[in-house]
Design goal:
By secondary structure, this protein is mainly β. The protein is built from one helix and 29 strands. It has two domains: 260 residues, Jelly Rolls, CATH 2.60.120; 122 residues, Trefoil (Trefoil (Acidic Fibroblast Growth Factor, subunit A)). Strands 1, 2, 3, 4, 8, 13, 14, 15 and 17 form a nine-stranded antiparallel beta sheet that branches. Strands 5-16-9-10-11-12 form a six-stranded antiparallel beta sheet, with no helix packed on it. The relative contact order is 0.14. The N terminus is likely disordered.
Length: 418
Amino acid sequence: MAFDPKRIKLARRGLFAGGGALALSAFLEAPASAAEMPPNPLEKPGWILERNDEFNGSLDPNLWITKYLESRTSTDRASARYGFRDNALVLRIDDDQPTYYTDNPMKVSSIQTGQRTHLHKDNRFDHEIPTDMKYATQYGYFEIRAKSSARSGIHTAFWLIGRQDTWEQRGELDIMEHAGIHGKSRFNYNLFKWSDPNLSDSTNSVGVGFDMTTEMHIYAIEWTPTQFKLYIDNVLTRTIDQSPRYPAVFLLGVYENAGWTGSVDPDDPRPKEFVVDYFRAYKPADDAADPQSGRTYRLRNVSTGQYLDSEGDGAVALEPSSIYDDQLWTLNEQQPGYWTIDNVREGRGYLDTDPDGQVIWNTGWLGDDSLWAIAPVSGGFRIGNKLGGRGYLYGSGGSVGWNTGSTDANTVWALERQ
């Protein structure tokens, strides 16, 4: 078992970022309950870790957006209040926090892995926002370790929603939605179809034998092509025999006055918190190891968080995530150990190298300058050109090039299966 820093907590201290400074005494952690579920090891038998954030004092900017469904309201009202305590994320509702809407008492602090205009239930509009899908995936095992503070008028949630490339891709799964009106030991596990014609609603109330507001426990979902399987503290608890046919984004949030959770007790002091120890996403290990010949991927530069994108006239760049096929690349092993990286967009060919550090796409020419070795490294893959003297594919800012052999973080790429 690898060393897991979550198993040895640092000395208790209040280290917070985000809006709203609060007294240190408000964040001192109570002694852990003997009934708490300890963190799982990072390694999970039968699964390969794809993305994670251990929340050790910061948010991964290549994974999280800190504005909740921003196109519905102003940026300041959508912005999360959050901080960190004992190597855990603390999402919070503060006294001075603005309501989400000007005409509604709801407050929310939420982070999410993807964003676009009109994402999820098109019931409000304030302004257009760029599409930014930092992590939108389909199928796998997704896990958090968390403690709720859901009380009167409060709920916390770990949930997913379709990335909505089309209007039908709007299914919602509430993996763990804990509302104070349901007590300290019961939460909602719900599937809502919204406009997805292939799903039907499934609502479930799940009871647990512990206090969700005082103890850290593990909540996870296994998503397969046919099912959602809910795990609590690594035990299979409920199954929904349906599955969306498209990628989804993940959200973590705490909400006050959401409309269905009852009235907020005015004597119940803020901040209201949702404490999350980690977020982890896994893919099945029994899938053939990447890369796979003939499979299509998006190539994400791990250092910048942006994607390899083909543009006009042979140009290649790094761009934020988009839904278009100019970010889709099919890998084929043309020679033992050497691959072509072929853009899916019609008329655009192989990833190729030109002199002076330039990377382009060609119109189908196959030679050493368009063949690449793809080697696994920590955090992803390093992609090296076969032509002598031309080194590794790298990304910096919005540009892509080849270097002469440096192996810094800008040369690490994630292969995201499509």
